[in-house]
Amino acid sequence: MQTDFKPLEHYGVIGNLETCALVGRDGAVDWCCLPHVYSPSAFAAILDPDVGGRFAIGPADEYESEQAYLSRTNVLQTTFETASGTMTVTDFMPVVEANNEEQPEVRGLYRKVTCTEGSVEVDVEFDPQFDYGRADTAVNPVTDGVTATGDDSHLYLSTPTDLDTDGGAARGTYRLDAHDTQWYVLQYDMDSPTDAEDCERLLEETAQYWREWAHSCVESECLFGGQAHEYVVRSELVLKLLNYRETGALIAAPTTSLPEDVGGMRNWDYRYSWIRDGGITVRALTNLGHVEEANDYVHRFLKLSRMGDSAGVQPLYGVEGDGELEEEELDHLRGYRDSRPVRIGNEAADQRQLDVYGDLVLAMYQRFWSDGQDVTNEDWKALCDIAEYVCEHWDDEGAGIWELRGEPRHLVYSKVMCWVALDRSVRLADRTGRKGPVDHWRECREEIKETVLEKGFDEDLNSFTQSFEGAELDASSLLIALSGILPFDDERIVGTVDAVREHLTTDDGLVFRYEDDGLPGEEGAFVFCSFWLVNALVATGRVEEAWDVFESVLEHASPLGLFAEEINPESGRQIGNFPQGFSHIGLINSALFLREAEYDWATVGPLGQATLIQERERQEDGDADADETAAADAPQHGGD
């Protein structure tokens, strides 16, 4: 069995809306935190093959393997071809909501091992290491399986064959003949069914749950139809995996410290939920028909904004709403491909990132227009508080979208998102008749715009820059084109797109975030920035060029259609935390932009996309403000 580091694109992901597991092409569960995604790990071989722990099932002999999901599900199958036969390992975690209401809730990791042809010698290794490998973990035999204990953690693995527990792990080798099936059930919370018939039932129910949740359509008539359709379906299933059922939070990724620079220190914990991702999340989920999840996402962050004054809004929170995300380094772990330090927690929660206020208002704005959601008195008060805070603090310095860890600066994109916060607040007030200091918001909105155009645009570069009166380019400037602060065809918007295309983009359309962030080492191209480029090209009328970039980015997807945070442009390997939820949101929204470009806006109708909403506003208003309104899109967090 492979015991060294595997490429990220050799992993699939499964989960149950509470936690996730990464399963390698070799049949090893190399990452899983139990019982929740933010819990300490039970298996962390992806961060250290020697001490991290794994749960592996695979052939004892040489093999070739491939992975695939059952159609329109998050049920993963790994198929092994050996000289003597073929076997398949089917992995899933039952989704609580999929369980029969008459049965108790089921939480566990289910692994079905089937020989489909010939015979196969199967190796099994069960080696959990609790608390990121820091706890003393004991594995002992019990009736029909083994247990693992360490600190306050406890696992029970139901096994069809006896395993040897010498050496602190459970291992064994056995033979499967054609049509033989064995089940391994890892329980961590309560008694879960282990009888083969019950396991098969749970497999069928879980597959049915995913298929009923994923949007169904006639592909030729689907808003997301065409060549990107399967990528969109996989992306929405990834987003659902990253949706924490109890609170509606959407985590950025289920992993920590997978490096942006292999061998370097750009390693961050992404098992949290960022406010910044709100607007684009709502847009993607709504247009896929997942209105409930979109509502939950907005209401969650509005609730957090009401927990204190607006100054207390953090850029990110734990999935339960906790704000204390103290950062810690785990010096005992090697890190993925020897990239240290390994971090848990994220001190970016303590940063000032003014752009998040725009994202919070934008998410609310998206929901109001896309599904006719009412703005409650409580929500309107929260919005007014946010708008007033923006008026008072928009000209403060901050860390910004990329969570830069140097001295705070006047970052152009942060100012633009402050403008967005006030612009959308004014529009909601106008449309709903709600009362507030709207004239003050208008005045401040205009002041921000004048300042951005004066200090945030470089005539020599013919582009917006990263910071006021600076000369460094930043891919976040692509989102200025989509903010509405200037019309799509304004020469400053077009010039910015051209500058990013020339200076921050590879020949095949991969986009870097910036030129320099002050940290040692070099990171890869940021997947989501490439999708921003697609959207900006569509907005400025360069649709054919946008398709070229989009298709080029899709070529970097893993065989399962998954994306990490970044791509190494030299090797083509995926790097950064995996799978990255907002790489997939970017894919969905870019597919939507490209499809919109194929239609006449006047005939499509109010589908809820921001582009259509804004075009309708222009037609209704006919005023100067509306002439400057453009498609609204919002970015995801950075990792620094």
Automatic annotation (TrEMBL):
<dbReference type="Pfam" id="PF00723">
    <property type="entry name" value="Glyco_hydro_15"/>
</dbReference>
<dbReference type="GO" id="GO:0016787">
    <property type="term" value="F:hydrolase activity"/>
</dbReference>
<dbReference type="InterPro" id="IPR012341">
    <property type="entry name" value="6hp_glycosidase-like_sf"/>
</dbReference>
<comment type="similarity">
    <text>Belongs to the glycosyl hydrolase 15 family.</text>
</comment>
<dbReference type="InterPro" id="IPR008928">
    <property type="entry name" value="6-hairpin_glycosidase_sf"/>
</dbReference>
<feature type="region of interest" description="Disordered">
    <location>
        <begin position="614"/>
        <end position="640"/>
    </location>
</feature>
<feature type="domain" description="Trehalase-like N-terminal">
    <location>
        <begin position="6"/>
        <end position="160"/>
    </location>
</feature>
<dbReference type="InterPro" id="IPR011613">
    <property type="entry name" value="GH15-like"/>
</dbReference>
<dbReference type="Pfam" id="PF19291">
    <property type="entry name" value="TREH_N"/>
</dbReference>
<dbReference type="InterPro" id="IPR045582">
    <property type="entry name" value="Trehalase-like_N"/>
</dbReference>
<protein>
    <submittedName>
        <fullName>Glycoside hydrolase family 15 protein</fullName>
    </submittedName>
</protein>
<keyword id="KW-0378">Hydrolase</keyword>
<feature type="domain" description="GH15-like">
    <location>
        <begin position="227"/>
        <end position="591"/>
    </location>
</feature>
